[in-house]
Amino acid sequence: MGGVSSPLDELPLRDDLRGMSPYGAPQESVPIALNVNENTHPVPEDVADDILDGIAVALQEVNRYPDREFVALREAFADYLGQGLRRENLWAANGSNEVLQQVLQAFGGPGRTVFGFGPTYSMYPLLARGVGSDWIAGERAHDFTLTPESAARQVADADPDVVFLCAPNNPTGTPMPLEVIEAVYDACRGVVVVDEAYQEFAPHDQPSAVTLLHERPRLAVSRTMSKAFAFAGARVGYLAASPAFTDALRLVRLPYHLSALTQAAALGALRHADTMLAMVDDIVAQRDRMGATLSALGYEPYESWSNFILFGGVDDPQRTWRALLERGVLVRDVGLAGTLRVTAGTEEETTAFLEQLASIDSHS
Ligand SMILES: *Cc1c(COP(=O)(O)O)cnc(C)c1O
User: Fold this and answer.
1) Could you tell me if the CB of 95 is within 6 A of ligand 1?
2) Of 103, 123, 229, 235, which is best to mutate to test ligand 1, by the most ligand atoms within 8 angstroms of its C-beta?
3) What is the pLDDT of residues 146-178, one digit of tens each?
4) For the chain, percent helix, then strand, then coil, each to nearest 5?
5) Whose CA is nearest to atom 15 of ligand 1?
6) How far apart are the C-alpha atoms of 119 and 121, rounded to whole Å?
C-alpha cells in the first residue's frame, strides 16, 4: 500500500459522503496571511511562560488520564462569562468546531435537519452532513441582515431540529440583534446554537446571547479561544447552556476528549484573560481603519462586528485574490460574487494589505 493511493470511489465510503470535498481554506505560506480570521498577534511572552509552567505541572501526571469532567476549566469559563453561570452550564472541547459537532451528535443525526441563514460559516453544512443530517439554508436580505419577523417565519417553515445562528456572522461580519435570536427560539422546537466566535470584537456595550440563557433550556452559546484569545493552534472552544443541555453532550463526547495539556494551556490563558484580550481593541481599530480605507479606495465594505471585513465592488475576485497573493498578501475568496474577505492584522500587516490593494486596479 505504502505511497500508492487508490481513488476514493474504490473504497466502501458512506454513500452520503461521496462527491463531498473537505473544508479547505488554502494553506499557502505567505508573509501576510489574512485569510482565516486568526488573531495575528502572538501570545505575550510573560503569558506564554505562565502557560508553559502549567503545562509542565500537567506533564508530571501525564501517565494518568486527565479530568474527564474538566471541572477547573469549566469553572474558569463560567467566571470568564459571568452572568451567574456555574460549572454545570459550561462545556468545552477541542475547538468550537468540536463543540458544534457534539451538539449535532446529540441533537441532530440521521433523518434530522440543521438550519442556518446563508451565507454563513461553511463548516455548518459539513458538520451536519458528517452526522447524516440535512442542511437547510435560509435567506438574508441583500445586505446580509435579518429581521426578527423574517428569521422567525423561515425557521417556523423549516421546522428544524438544530438552528445555527452565527453572531456576528462569518463570512459577512454582520451583527445579529438579540431580538432575532429570541424570535428564532420562540419560532421553533429544536435547539438553537448561537455561535459567538467573534463576540469579543463587537462593541463593548453590546450584550451577548449569554444574557438570554436564563429559562431557555434549548438555547446554547458557543465561543472559541481561537480568535480573541489568539489561541487557534491550541484548539479550545466552549459552550454555555442549561445544565441539561451540557449533560446531553456528555452522552456523545469521547472519553477524556480534552487532554491534560489542553486543559492546562486553556487555564493558563484564562488566568491572563485581560492581557490576552488587550489586543482585541487594537484589532478592532485596524478593522475600522481598513473599512474606512476600503471605502476611500472605492470598495464597498459591509458593516462588521468581527475581526474581518467582507468588501464588495471587486470586479474579478479570483484575479484580485491572485494579484494580492503575488504581492505576498493572502486574503479569502468566500465565493460571494464581487467580494473578498480580509482579516484585520497588526498595524503593519493591515497597512501592507491596503497599500498592495491600492496598487491593483480591481474595481467593477
Ligand atoms: C473561526 C470560527 C470558529 C472557531 O472554530 P475553532 O474550532 O474554535 O477554531 C467557529 N465558528 C465560526 C463562525 C468561526 O469563524
Assistant:
1) yes
2) 123
3) 999 999 999 999 999 999 999 999 999 999 999
4) 40, 15, 45
5) 170
6) 7
10 Å Cβ neighbour count for 41? 16
Query: Whose CA is closest to atom 3 on ligand 1?
Result: 197
In this prediction the pTM is 0.95
Tell me, in angstroms, the distance from the centre of ligand 1 to residue 125's CA: 14
Please choose from 127, 224, 307, 310 the residue to mutate so as to test ligand 1's pocket, defined by most ligand atoms within 8 A of CB: 224
Taking CA atoms, 143 is separated from 28, 151, 172, 345, in Å, by 31, 15, 9, 25
Please name the amino acid found at residue 324: L
Q: What is the CA radius of gyration of the chain?
A: 21
Burial of 52-80, coded b for 16+ CB within 10 Å and e otherwise, reads: eebbeebeeeeeeebeeebeebbbbbbeb
Nearest residue (by CA) to ligand 1, atom 1, is 197
Q: Which three cell numbers stand for residue 43?
A: 501570545
Cell 467593477 locates to 364
Dist. CA 122 → ligand 1 center (Å):
10
Confidence of residue 21 (pLDDT cuts 50, 70, 90): confident
pLDDT digits (tens, 9 = 90+) for 277-335: 888 999 999 999 999 999 999 999 999 999 999 999 999 999 999 999 999 999 999 99
- Let me know: does 356 contact 327? Beta carbons within 8 Å: yes
Crossing angle for the helix pair 71-81 and 260-271, nearest 10 degrees?
30
DSSP single-letter state for residue 24: -
Domains along the sequence of the chain with CATH: 25-44+275-358 (3.90.1150.10), 45-271 (3.40.640.10)
Distance 237 CA to ligand 1 centre (A): 8
> Residue 1: what pLDDT?
45
